[in-house]
Amino acid sequence: MEFYQLEAFVSVAAERSFSRAAEQLYLSQPTVSAHIKSLEKELGTSLFDRGKTELKLTGAGSVLYRFAREMLALRLSAVDSIRDSSEIGEEALTVAASSVPCQYLLPRAIAAFKELHNRVNIKLTQKNSKETCEDVFNYHVPVGVVGEKIKRPHLEFAPLLEDELVVAVPHKQHYSELLAKESVSLNDLSGHKMLLREPGSGTRSHFESELVKANASTEMFQVTIFDNQETIKQAVRQGLGLTVISRYVVSDYLQFGILATRSITDLNLKRSFYLVSHSKRILSPASKALLDHLKTFPWED
Q1: Fewer Cβ in 10 A, N or C end of the chain?
Q2: Domain boundaries, the chain
Q3: Residue ranges of the HTH lysR-type domain (predicted)?
Q4: Is this model's pTM higher than 0.90 or not?
Q5: Fold (topology level) of 3-85
Q6: Has domain 162-271 been given CATH number 3.40.190.10?
């Protein structure tokens, strides 16, 4: 029993005419007749009393007519529900991100997304790159943004924008020699107090990997560990040491002359931020829309 047979049957029963049913369904009358005959053959009974005066339903036809209308209505309801589920409605999403994109980049992109889809509520949670990738891998969050690729099966990384790590220098007399230079070398920085993020931070990992390439390590500095970018900025501002930090993090302090920044000539401290997602995960309409939005957002504007 197929839906096209039931549609033909219900239409003939309602119109009490094969010809009028054919017009309504935009089919030929022989096609409609064939649908009814095949349905009667399948059920093993006549559905219509084809008398000389008027087309009437048989007892079996009356029973089928009631169920057929319900079945067609249920199909229509199912199709409508499926279409509704593919539309972006009210939904709560969580996006995990490492500290720099979470604090300094994503809020503007999320605000732009909310203007398009105001029924979607988005929570930002800050974790380091390793934790963020683990959350995406374990289906805890649909998408994440990281500064370091952590390899896990089925994780996909799409580059979002370029960043550069710089040395932040306080405007203090003790650092006058560094401030006098347009850029600094590792030798210039050797022995200085260096305020760094905790192990697992994308910023620290990139800095340390570039130090290794230059046959150096963090042992050449007096290292103090912090777990928060803003705390590091305030500590550097007060002259407690230097730090290697994203240019996005100190852009406001640089604009108002609170801190100075210098590039390190010995190291390539450019990096990318990546959008991480799980290739095997079926995303909700809102999650997919957010993923597409972040991929195309004008980050540099």
Answers
A1: C
A2: 3-85, 91-161+273-296, 162-271
A3: 1-58
A4: no
A5: Arc Repressor Mutant, subunit A (1.10.10)
A6: yes
Cα 107 from chain centroid (whole Å): 14
Alpha-carbon 50 to chain mean position: 60
Task: Supply the DSSP string of 140-208, one letter for each residue.
Answer: SSSEEEESS----TTEEEEEEEEEEEEEEEES-GGGHHHHTSSEE-HHHHTTSEEEEEPTT-HHHHHHH
The pair of three-digit structure tokens given for residue 95, joined into one six-digit string: 């996006």
Angle at 151 between CA 148 and CA 157, to 5 degrees: 60
The number of residues in the chain equals 301
Q: What is the pLDDT tens value at each position of the chain, 301 positions in all?
A: 899 899 999 999 888 889 888 988 888 999 999 999 999 999 999 999 887 677 889 999 999 998 988 898 888 888 777 766 667 878 899 999 988 899 999 999 999 999 999 989 999 999 988 899 999 999 999 999 998 889 999 999 999 999 999 999 999 999 999 999 999 999 999 999 999 988 877 788 899 999 999 999 999 999 999 988 899 999 999 999 999 999 999 999 999 999 999 999 999 999 999 999 999 998 888 999 999 999 999 988 7
Place of tokens 């605000």: 111
Strand 120-126 relative to strand 91-97, pairing = parallel
Tokens, residue 87: 């539309």
- Whether the domain at 91-161+273-296 and the domain at 162-271 fall into the same CATH topology: yes
For residue 224, with 0-12 CB atoms within 10 Å meaning exposed, 13-18 middle and 19 or more buried, which class applies? middle
Q: Let me know the angle formed at the C-alpha of 85 by 84 and 90, rounded to the nearest 5 degrees.
A: 90
Look at the domain 91-161+273-296 and name its fold: D-Maltodextrin-Binding Protein; domain 2 (3.40.190)
Dmax over Cα atoms in the chain, in whole Å?
111
